[in-house]
Amino acid sequence: xxxxxxxxxxxxxxxxxxxxxxxxxxxxxxxxxxxxxxxxxxxxxxxxxxxxxxxxxxxxxxxxxxxxxxxxxxxxxxxxxxxxxxxxxxxxxxxxxxxxxxxxxxxxxxxxxxxxxxxxxxxxxxxxxxxxxxxxxxxxxxxxxxxxxxxxxxxxxxxxxxxxxxxxxxxxxxxxxxxxxxxxxxxxxxxxxxxxxxxxxxxxxxxxxxxxxxxxxxxxxxxxxxxxxxxxxxxxxxxxxxxxxxxxxxxx
Length: 252
Ligand code: BJW
Ligand code: ZN
Fold this sequence. Notes:
With 252 residues, this protein is α/β, with parallel strands linked by helices. The chain folds into two domains: 1-32 and 80-120 and 174-252, Rossmann fold; 34-77 and 123-168, SIR2/SIRT2 'Small Domain'. The protein contains eleven helices and nine strands. The protein has helices at residues 4-15, 26-29, 42-45, 48-51, 54-59, 61-76, 82-93, 107-111, 177-189, 208-214, 241-251; strands at residues 19-23, 97-101, 117-118, 121-128, 135-137, 164-168, 192-196, 218-223, 235-238. The strands form two sheets. It has a six-stranded parallel beta sheet with strand order 3-2-1-7-8-9, sandwiched between helices. The two termini are 15 Å apart. 40% of the residues are buried. Bound molecules: ligand BJW and zinc ion. Residues 24-26, 29-30, 35-38, 41, 52, 102, 104, 120, 168-174, 197-199, 201-204, 223-225, 227, 240-241 line the site of ligand BJW.
């Protein structure tokens, strides 16, 4: 007998003109990619101010690059899980579907999502720290090898002579205005917002559920535990994304 809340969400997804899913680190947890917060989260062992701010990079770019290479090594051997795959099928099968992710791991693309908005960048790209505009993309590879394929030297250099940095958004940095504007507009006009596997504490992404709700959308939280969003969500689906999303798809 399907859960009544799941049935309600499935009915709304089926009837919706526009569905948006916003994802966080929790959707990749079952692929073996560590989350940030919580008992096994990255911020338990590493300090954000030492590793995920522009000041940290200016102070010790080698340390920051070592941390990102370690994370890339974890992600390289991970595979998209059933939760990622359901969202990729939603893009194909629902009349209007927009995926907005805070994740930088690229697992949504590997699952087959094409039109997603990556609010916090992508760990497989590097860009010039001095802003000369150069961007390197190395999907799935990520060694940023030296000349002639020599082993990488950290921190890697841009062709302009400055340093390269991971193409991600650190604390205190502005999100790409094109991306956050598109995400806000999608949230404003959607009928259903699925908020999947995020602690919903990092702004401006954490503002999207309220924007959707003010626009009249059904806001659904899908998470294994409570977050600051729980009290404001219309429906809360408790459980791992890799189980709950397939169950939802089966009913929708
Ligand atoms: C499962 C599960 C399973 C587990 N199934 N669920 C005070 C108030 C408001 C704002 C601020 C403030 N002080 C500072 C700010 C601003 C700051 C901010 O929001 N800070 C708060 C933390 C307080 N924001 C910023 O700085 C942003 N920029 C900005 O505001 O710019 C302003 C500006 C304008 C103009 C000029 C200059 C500046 C930028 C934020 C960038 C965040 N970057 C990071 C790192 C990205 C790169 C990298 O990966 O290294 O993004 S931090 C980290 O947090 C990462 C994530 O995308 C982000 C969100 O985390 P997420 O995805 O929610 O993960 P977790 O671990 O927190 O949660 C996982 C969840 O999954 C949990 O709930 C689990 O229960 C659940 N889960 N397994 C389902 N199987
Ligand atoms: Zn450069």
